[in-house]
Amino acid sequence: MARAWRCVAVAACATLFIGLVRMVSSAPELVAGQGAGCDGSRTPVSFTGDGQSLAVPASVVPCLSTTGFGGAETRVVVTTDGTVVYEPAIITPGLAGTGYLAGVPGPHLSTQVSPGGLAVSHDQAGTWNFVEPAGQTWVPQDDQLYADRTTGWLYYYALSPDPVPQAGTPLQDQLPAGYAQLMASPDDGRSWYHSALPGYLESENPRFTAARAPDRQQGPTSYAASPDVVYWCGNNALFTWAANEAVAGVAGVQPAPSYRACYRSLNGGVSWSFASILFSTPLPQHSACGTAGENFNAGDANYPQGAPDGSLYVLVSCGNSTYLARSTDEAASFPILTNTNGSLRRAPANGELRVDPIGNLYLVAQAGDALDLWTSTDQGRTWQGPSDMTVPGSKNISEWAMAEAGRGEVEVSYLADTSAGTGLDGFASVTRDALATAPAFIGTTLDDPSVPVYAGTPAEARDDFVGADIGPDGTPWASFFGSCSATDTDPGCAGQSGNPEANKSFIGHLTGLGPVP
Asked: Which helix (H) or strand (E) holds 261?
């Protein structure tokens, strides 16, 4: 059965094409944010992984502002030159905010099919441009961003064009929910390459990564375009996963076949080719999983991560076990690593995995109200941890993300409740010595807890996914979606009074950490 799926993917791969390269000016062209939003009256806390308090440098200040566009499930990346890119930036033209019949009178309420693009800032979140990747707007839910720090390229995945049709890409590639829309920009969003991979029905939460070509592998075909091999992996169908969740535990009902496939690009993301099936159900790709498929769904983080030697690490979850696998053949296979005694190499938990420029591994996993950091300096043979990265007192973690940069700098951003059930605050916590025996963390709420980014009772976010990234200068960034109030004056909330789908786009960072060690 896995072989049949593989043939379908190969056939789809043959239809790939290079999309147009184009920059679209924003409308509005430039949106003023609310300054950097830094608040020196709120002091971050410093602590160890077991909750002991430490002294905080007086220079560290939390900052939070908005992009001025509507928001939803969010990602943030910082490119090589310090450009901050926030996804999504939602606009609400047309009937009920859908983007259809632009210019019609009446309320333009935000919906899950409102058109969106990217918000881009070149001045540390002071002002924001609206960018239409590949010359059009997209569904602003379940998308993905990635910045390759080696090459400076920016990568964007979107569910579907919104609305349809648009002039930005060929009409045959605009079938709603029918393609994985992959875009690549070599210049911070000014121009774009676009590819549409058929056979992907609303693939939720896919991921990119990049690494140099492994020794003796093909490597990039155009070194001038990008010296890295770029990878994209995604589930074939969101709807298949919804069906599987619905029948889980129902006697006599088998899950629908589905898989997570990986593609590679040898020219910086201009075009893509099929590499392998990473996971599948009901039959697995890894024999260690026995007769049951690997654990994967629309929300897990088990996607390949590029290493400095060109290999790719990935967590493989089966039942109650999590293994560490590694590809040395440009994602053609992902065998589980073995130890010297022949046993399979396990990870201490299932969560978000990262690899630094010298091959150290960093893993963050949620355990109740803790976000535990684990590290390994020997390719996962042994692990140090756990160290809880959450700010003491935060509870009821709703959504979280992690980022790693350099050698030992790790950040988590998360939504959690410190407001007695009245809402969710946006947190950022960072360490610059993750490989130390007892790492020290600095963290805080980026918002004023008396005015949480997400208001409501119960304090539970209605969307998935927040964002985290660490800039080249070591600044930790965090992105959140937040609720609009009936009297909100933020431009992203204009005309949204009483609309339950209305969200603001919050962007925060910690300033004053000093140069990267």
From this structure: strand 258-265
- Residue 42 corresponds to which tokens in the numbers above? 């709120």
Cis peptide upstream of residue 282 (ω within 30 degrees of 0): yes
Rounded (to 5) percent helix, strand, coil in the chain:
5, 40, 55
- Residue 312 is predicted with a pLDDT of 98
Residue 89 in this model has a pLDDT that exceeds 90: yes
Other beta carbons within 10 angstroms of residue 127's beta carbon come to 16
Closest to 506 (Cα-Cα) out of 483, 488, 481, 484: 481
| Separation between Cα atoms, residue 400 and residue 370, nearest integer Å | 11
Lowest-pLDDT range, 38-42, 74-78, 385-389? 38-42
What are the backbone dihedrals phi and psi of residue 2, each rounded to the nearest 5 degrees, phi first? -60, -35
CA distances from 474 to 10, 78, 477, 516 (A): 41, 10, 9, 6
Residue 19: C-alpha distances to residues 24, 82, 167, 185, 395 (Å): 15, 27, 12, 12, 45
Average pLDDT (199-219) is 84
Cα Rg, the chain, nearest whole Å: 22
All structural domains of the chain, each given as residue ranges with its CATH number in brackets, are 2-511 (2.120.10.30)
